[in-house]
Amino acid sequence: MRLKLNLYIVFAVLFIVCSCKSTTNDDITNINSVKTQEFQPDIMIDWWKVIYKHVAYQRVKPPVASRIYAYIGVAAYEAALPGMVGYNSFEGQLSDLKDLPRPDANLVYDWPTVITHAVYLSTDELLKRFIHGSESDFKDLKEKQLNERKLAVAEDVFQRSEKYGQDLANKIVEWIRKDKFDDTRYYSFYKIPSRNNNPELWEPTEATADPCEPYWASIRPFFLDNGEQCHIPLKVPFSTDPDSEFRKYMNEILEFDRNMTEDQRDIALFWADDPGETSTPPGHWTYIMNYAIQQENFNLEQAVSTYALVGVGIADAFIASWYTKYKVNLLRPKTYAQEYLDMPEWEPLIETPPFPEYASGHSVVSTVAAELLTEIFGENYSLMDSTHVSIGLEPRKITSFRDAAMEASMSRVYGGLHFMFAIDAGIEQGLCVKQGIVDKIKLRKDNTLNISNK
Question: Among 67, 101, 336, 427, which is most exposed with the fewest C-beta within 10 angstroms?
């Protein structure tokens, strides 16, 4: 009798456990509300435009910009998710993202209202070190979007959606604050390794330049295990020997510099993406996404999925790249030319940024972005990239995302910033990061990345 009773208890416990919500990717679809795919993507495109502007004006560094875009993409995605059939949450897939609030499946919500609150509060957290509290652009956009939604939905739906958006944003912000970014603001001042007896080591090429984010590899990744996961060791040994392989790569840069074509110069300047003038490479690729989303007439569901997926890919690309940069710590071509080629006045076409040479960050980031966008929009996708019209550069035609990534990579050789072997390593590292997201992230419940439904 006791054995029989114990078996009843065991089966009862198993029934209770199996009946509970045991995974973060159970179906949370809200069937009583208008689906996310019924809305246009304008709400997010407007946010990207104002964020891009301020990231540029405030001279936000490229790694930091990637963090901003990634978190905002995730916030928008999770805000829209209950209105998206067949999609998984990032909860349980991205590092430490858990316990997100979920809306009541029996009530009606307005997903654009939820998105506006989630994005506004996340943006406020991510830009708090850069934007003065009286800055009105973000508040004005929030009020504009909310006023439009007030006219479109019932008051109880609007208020309920506001509350859910705020609750979700509070949890996203709590997650953001634990990624060690704030900790790195208080780390001890980075001491540049001495080049005495180590001539291959990097040092800033401008006397007033501080090393850019030397502790970035300690930031919590989104889906990679750590920055080291996709590390590519240096394959070309440093040498000052005129007949060495290393010298041949330096000579290649000088050859481009002496005989640069107009198209090569245009490529170098178009993909420079300097802080202060632009929103840096993460912003450039976000604008490219905007153009593709608008050209394909994507709905809001497709848009937030694209922003989130590519955003976290780019962010982890920076973490992987910065790990390798400060691990290898290789000098820049400018230093090599001035010190070992008796060319003390030589300057590259593009101003050398204040971080180590190897591997090419443009190559890592652009490869990840291009590979993910190719997964979404397809091979040989064409569009006009007008990102830099505001700073006087002509639009440039993109015939495929991969070709655009190769242009971005080669721009750093034409500009005199990278050796070709650093480009090759950056592409290899980017492919590793992209594979990491494909292996780790299950965006849709059928385990595909079929956002465009092509």
Answer: 101
Q: Residue 187 above 70 pLDDT?
A: yes
> Who has greater pLDDT, 140 or 2?
140
The count of structural domains within the chain is 2
**71: containing domain:** 34-180
* Percentage of residues of the chain with pLDDT beyond 70: 93
In order of 58, 123, 135, the CA distances from 128 in angstroms are 12, 8, 11
Give, as one character, the DSSP assignment of residue 352.
Answer: P
Q: In sequence order, what are the residues at sequence separation of 6 or more whose Cβ sits closer than 8 angstroms to the Cβ of residue 413? A: 252, 253, 256, 419, 420, 423
User: What's the token pair of residue 173?
Assistant: 């912000």
CB burial class (10 A; 0-12, 13-18, 19+) of residue 448? exposed
The answer to whether residues 397 and 382 touch, using CB atoms and an 8 Å cutoff, is yes
Task: Based on the fold, state whether residues 389 and 282 are members of the same structural domain.
Answer: yes
Q: Give the torsion sign (CA, 42, 139, 306, 109).
A: negative
- Number of helices and strands in the chain (H, E): 15, 2
Do the Cβ atoms of 346 and 332 come closer than 8 Å? no
CA distance 113 to 142: 9
The SS3 assignment for 300 reads helix
Identify whether residues 272 and 347 lie together within a single domain.
yes
Q: Helix (H, G, I), strand (E, B), or coil: what is residue 87?
A: strand
The residue-averaged pLDDT of 365-394 equals 95
**pLDDT given for residue 131 in this prediction:** 87
Q: Based on the fold, state whether residues 248 and 321 are members of the same structural domain.
A: yes
pLDDT of residue 454: 55
Q: What is the mean pLDDT of the chain?
A: 92
Domain membership of residue 278 (yes or no) is: yes
